[in-house]
């Protein structure tokens, strides 16, 4: 239990950790950037695990800084950050992070603190953080250990990576393609929960390191396949083309083998809730929403569902025909499409031009007493969170997932 491990820290150590909170707020990103530089230069093999694109963007270091800050601020009551711990633990389990990785992280995190803080990082401060890191690491290790054990005891479950075969490849739009995956060994594999993701392992010719990427499963659980629907990330401005997404689009064909991890993630549909369900997506953020939609019509056929999707145009709008099929066959499901740059061919195919604004959203949602799930680009998600908050939706009824390292969208 978290409360058991926290007693290992004496009051003086806790006081020192809490005193560093303002410093972490101000310089946390600097510390974690230096941490990654130190660690990856001395342990380049870890580049096989860490997403180098997120490293370049600074997303990974920012996410780590937020986690370290949260742990420091709650060092007296680490149970307060268990939702964050659980979310990160799911990512770690999907990436096959193991206990032996934690001492490496701790070593270079302290070196990053020393390097950035200079004389302010006294021996007393560093010693306190070394103790605190040990306690915090134990919390993560314990949560992840239970996840690995649960997976090993699941029928068809597996740890590490397992080869799956592409049994079907479907072009969904100009930029999104779906890959249907079945176990290469022909043995059973576990059903996922609607909203979960898998990690794919890509060994690409000419690339010095393995690339791991996480993609949401876009199908309902219990099918005889897993399905990922991948957006091809093209080069835009200073942002290079996505290495893995382009590899999958160009190189994976029916019969190709793709190593994947078992499904993971805690952004899942609550099937015990029978209130109206509102699913809101932007761009490729529709993948978990499609899984939830496909699931709810099977397991809760009477539940009222509102499916809202925003895209640039019909050219990049994936699975629109499937949504039309569902709304035609299930009268309790309503769907709205929003395009901000429609083409001439899109005439009559969308319900709103522009963006999802608060006034329009209020006009279509059945009630604020509903379960709201949304996913999409970070700016889109910030807007949705603000709209729903302004419409008096309870915070516990607002659920979302950020693609990539976790980040705050509530500010």
Q: How would you characterize this protein structure?
A:
- The chain has helices at residues 2-6, 11-19, 21-42, 52-57, 59-73, 82-95, 101-117, 123-152, 243-251, 286-299, 320-329, 358-364, 378-390; strands at 162-171, 176-183, 197-202, 211-216, 226-231, 257-260, 277-282, 305-311, 333-339, 352-353, 371-375, 398-401.
- It is an alpha/beta fold and 411 residues long.
- The protein folds into three domains: 2-152, Globins (Globin-like, Orthogonal Bundle); 162-260, Translation factors (Elongation Factor Tu (Ef-tu), domain 3), CATH 2.40.30; 277-401, 3-Layer(aba) Sandwich (Rossmann fold).
- A six-stranded parallel beta sheet has the order 10-9-8-7-11-12, sandwiched between helices. A four-stranded antiparallel beta sheet has the order 5-2-1-6.
- Strand 11 (371-375), helix 13 (378-390) and strand 12 form a beta-alpha-beta unit.
- Helix 3 crosses helix 7.
- It is globular, with a radius of gyration of 22 Å.
């Amino acid at each position: 239990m978290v409360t058991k491990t926290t007693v290992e820290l004496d009051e003086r150590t806790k006081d020192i950790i809490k005193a560093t909170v303002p410093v972490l707020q101000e310089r946390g990103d600097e510390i974690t950037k230096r941490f990654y530089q130190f660690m990856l230069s001395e342990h380049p093999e870890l580049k096989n695990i860490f997403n180098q694109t997120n490293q370049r963007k600074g997303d990974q270091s920012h996410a780590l800084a937020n986690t370290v800050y949260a742990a420091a601020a709650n060092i007296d009551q680490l149970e307060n950050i268990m939702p964050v711990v659980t979310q990160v633990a799911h990512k770690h389990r999907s990436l096959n992070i193991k206990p032996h990785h934690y001492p490496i992280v701790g070593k270079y995190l302290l070196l990053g603190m020393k390097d950035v803080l200079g004389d302010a990082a006294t021996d007393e401060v560093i010693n306190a953080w070394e103790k605190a890191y040990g306690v915090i690491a134990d919390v993560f290790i314990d949560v992840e250990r239970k996840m690995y054990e649960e997976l090993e005891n699941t029928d068809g479950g597996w740890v590490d990576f397992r080869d799956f075969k592409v049994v079907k490849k479907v072009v969904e739009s100009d930029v999104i393609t779906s890959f249907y995956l079945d176990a290469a060994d022909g043995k059973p594999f576990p059903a996922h929960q609607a909203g979960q993701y898998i990690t794919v392992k890509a060994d690409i010719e000419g690339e010095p390191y393995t690339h791991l990427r996480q993609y949401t499963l876009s199908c309902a659980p219990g099918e005889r396949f897993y399905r990922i629907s991948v957006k091809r990330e093209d080069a835009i401005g200073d942002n290079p083309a996505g290495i893995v997404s382009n590899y999958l689009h160009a190189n994976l064909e029916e019969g190709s083998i793709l190593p994947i991890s078992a499904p993971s993630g805690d952004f899942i549909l609550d099937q015990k809730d029978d209130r109206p369900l509102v699913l809101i997506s932007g761009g490729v953020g529709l993948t978990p929403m499609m899984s939830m939609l496909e699931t709810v019509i099977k397991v809760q056929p009477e539940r009222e569902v509102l499916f809202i999707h925003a895209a640039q145009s019909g050219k990049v709008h994936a699975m629109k025909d499937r949504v039309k099929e569902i709304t035609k066959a299930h009268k309790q499901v309503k769907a709205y499409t929003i395009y901000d740059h429609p083409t001439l061919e899109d005439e009559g195919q969308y319900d709103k031009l522009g963006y999802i604004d608060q006034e329009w959203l209020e006009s279509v949602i059945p009630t604020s007493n509903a379960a709201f799930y949304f996913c999409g680009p970070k700016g889109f998600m910030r807007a949705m969170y603000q709209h729903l908050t302004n419409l008096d939706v309870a915070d516990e009824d607002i659920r979302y997932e950020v693609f990539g390292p976790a980040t705050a969208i509530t500010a």
